């Protein structure tokens, strides 16, 4: 068989509107190979029964069928949140996938860790590599390497031989932009190489194949000489298509509307079982229409949309969400029955070191919130004067401007709600006595200016209620000023912070994290 060369298939939104053409006579399909591909599946197991029907239909028409995915099949629904993607992979395996590429969202659950030894890759328990290795299909990425010797972290390519004897080589390309979109610790040991260079290397490695196909989520627009490239960028959302190659090597392409197909009965039973299990584990869940930034660097170096959401939830809890219901009886008996200042003097502060992960688009469950905050922090209320609040911010921003050297100190970076403030990093922090291992007390206030509190002028002599965590309440990170709080009414409540954030999403946002959290809201200025 003669290998096809210099063909590039780049999926675009315009082509996604083309009609499906799948009904060829069997005699016309001798020697044809149909590659069914999905992209950005994002845990959507509901389409798998129809996908099996499509595969069965094409096979019944006499075609050799290969089922593949271009990447980003894990995180995105409660079905993947159930067990960090294991259910999704098991169902994809049952549906008959042959090859899948590694995408950015395959790393969302912290399952990406591998160990590298001189003889190859050793997958850690519950790692992404081990999870995929347990499946019957092959998972490929040619541009993700691990360790100082740049060993391929996953299979760079694989070869599928069809019933007609055609040897089809598949290589994977992973979006290099995964770095910065996934929590840093999930990518420990990985390097993302240039996908164009990696593709050329794989075409050479697959020189003996009859056909070479690249499965990509890297957003490439370049042709790959010697290969057909199926590239489905993340922005396109769920995409299903069929690439057909006849015996002479000619290609045709169509997109598929799976809603028009009857679900395969056996696959539907398996999917329904997974639905029931997820429904029991997550009886209620929310949706996010935006990605909430979760990198360590972002959380410690400036305002983020995730920090906005987190502190908004705390502020709402204090003013409208029933915080007094979580005061203990002794406090209430002593006359501490709620927030002791007016709402315009209530603010929320949360440290960047306690924002540990992304909230991605798609379904959001309590388990997702627990990934962001894996600690059992409780909501605390402490009363400080305006002058103390200003000193608290001065000390908490001593890690700015952010750098590798200030990474630990910047864990105290204060995300806020109910206030706007400015940090002038051209003014050196006036470090006084050491406080803990990474921080110093502020000898003077010279870098931070509070512009407003809930739209009002800042008053250094006023009393403000700071809604925060029990850890900051007890002086964690740079927050020595917390220990100088008004003792009479300051309190640690019984409310868990993750529960409060969940309440805010469900009650105040009606279960939808929408465009208001698409970007940071301009509460903190750093110059």
Keywords:
elongated, Purple Acid Phosphatase, chain A, domain 2, alpha/beta, five-stranded mixed beta sheet, 527 residues, 29 strands, disordered N terminus, 5'-nucleotidase,  domain 2, 2 domains
Task: Write a brief structural summary.
This protein has 527 residues and is α/β, with parallel strands linked by helices. The protein contains 13 helices and 29 strands.
Task: Give a structural overview.
With 527 residues, the chain is α/β, with parallel strands linked by helices. It has two domains: 7-281, Purple Acid Phosphatase, chain A, domain 2 (4-Layer Sandwich); 286-526, Alpha-Beta Complex (5'-nucleotidase,  domain 2). The chain contains 13 helices and 29 strands. It has a six-stranded mixed β-sheet. Strand 10 (157-161) and strand 11 (167-173) form a beta hairpin. The model is unreliable at 1-7, 12-25 and 116-120 (pLDDT under 50).
Shape: elongated
Order of strands in the sheet with most strands = 7-4-3-2-15-16
Question: What gap, in angstroms, lies between the N and C termini?
Answer: 63 Å
| Classification by helices and strands | alpha/beta
- Radius of gyration equals 27 Å
| Total beta strands | 29
Please indicate the percent range of residues in DSSP E strands (runs of 2 or more): 25-35%
Q: Helix proportion of residues, in percent? A: 10-25%
Give the low-confidence spans: 1-7, 12-25, 116-120
Going by CATH, what is the homologous superfamily of the largest domain? Metallo-dependent phosphatases
